[in-house]
Write a structure and sequence with these properties.
Layout: H1 3-25, H2 30-38, H3 42-69, H4 76-92, H5 99-109, H6 114-142, H7 145-151, H8 155-177, H9 179-195, H10 202-225, H11 227-254, H12 262-276, H13 287-300, H14 304-342
């Protein structure tokens, strides 16, 4: 990703953040909100930060596990850097689109072939999204009354998010297991769009499609030969998601609230993630806050707004700051390595 794109995405994030702050806090009693926040138990916040770190760390473990499984020599500490890099760029780009390209770039600097990093990250993406799909479908099938009642104001966007995730993951799996038909469909789409002059340079685009399909063939082969490994990655991804969703329950406890079980809060936070995961907003800024206020008001009551501030501050903005810090460390480490090579 170019520096211009990074700056542009960051400015877009700042714009969304300012708009969100104005929308959420306009006309509200800020002194009262800050007083409610200051009365919360910070011990639970510390636990929440640990959960955020564990959330990011789980992806590091997955990358390390997959790399070792395909006999790729790699250090666990480097995997942690890759994870923080991925989450940083995911936090500042629409639909988290910038995370994996940045990870591939930094992995390439560590002499990891692009085809290897692409394969590993593809498996990470599919399993990561499959957890959300499983959660969303589970809610629709089990139909727990308290959860359905809470998500009623946001049922439409929840269903939209679930459908988009199913379509994206379904298409990725389809491309993995039927690459010939996928290539034929994509080429036809390119020709159709070029006939209306929607896209140009179709020859270059067809080459890129062919290259991508070849990479998907590698992924298909891996999926067929290593089903147990992929299943293990899925289970780690479930744990990873639970760490992040549990942050909201810790915030609930920090305000001294009782009466709602941690599973209910975890599932409700999962519903928000399902809804915003595929939307073109960096980190779901704006829409996540709105959905929190809609969904959690029956549970948090009059302190829903302060709880939202703390929950989003811990789960998203803490993740963003930590990831930015570790991304800077990775960048300077790469610069120092280059200087040593020159010497």
């Amino acid at each position: 990703m170019s520096k211009r794109k990074i700056v542009g995405n960051f400015l877009f994030l700042v714009f969304l953040f300012i708009g969100m702050v104005y929308y959420v806090f306009h006309g509200k009693d800020m002194a009262k909100i800050m007083d409610q926040i200051s009365n919360a138990n910070m011990f639970y916040w510390i636990c929440a930060v640990i959960c955020v770190i564990m959330f990011i760390g789980c992806e590091s473990v997955i990358i390390f596990y997959l790399m070792r499984n395909i006999r790729q020599k790699i250090k666990l500490t480097h995997c942690f850097l890759y994870s923080f890099i991925g989450f940083f760029f995911s936090c500042i780009t629409p639909s988290a689109s910038g995370g994996q390209p940045a990870q591939v770039y930094f992995m390439r600097k560590d002499n990891i072939p692009v085809e290897i990093s692409t394969l590993v990250l593809m498996i990470v993406t599919i399993t990561y999204k499959m957890v959300l799909i499983a959660l969303g479908i589970g809610v629709l099938i089990a139909r727990p009354q308290q959860i359905l009642h809470s998500i009623a104001p946001a049922k439409g966007i929840f269903c939209l998010g679930l459908i988009l995730n199913i379509v994206v993951v379904g298409f990725m799996i389809f491309m993995i297991f039927d690459t010939t038909l996928a290539k034929h469909i994509l080429n036809n789409v390119i020709e159709f769009l070029s006939s209306f002059k929607v896209i140009k340079k179709t020859e270059k685009l067809n080459i890129r499609v062919h290259t991508a399909i070849e990479k998907y063939k590698d992924a298909a082969s891996y999926f067929r030969r290593n089903k147990v490994v992929v299943w293990n990655v899925f289970l780690i991804s479930v744990l990873q998601r639970l760490f992040l969703f549990y942050v909201t329950y810790l915030v609930y406890k920090s305000f001294g609230l009782r009466g709602t079980g941690f599973l209910t809060i975890i599932f409700l936070q999962g519903v928000i993630s399902v809804a915003v995961d595929m939307l073109p907003f960096p980190g779901g800024v704006g829409i996540s806050e709105k959905l929190f206020l809609l969904i959690f008001t029956p549970i948090f009551g009059h302190i829903t707004l302060p709880a939202m501030v703390v929950s989003r501050g811990l789960s998203y903005y803490t993740e963003l700051l930590l990831s930015a810090l570790l991304t800077a460390v990775a960048y300077f480490r790469m610069v120092l390595d280059r200087r040593e090579e020159i010497k």
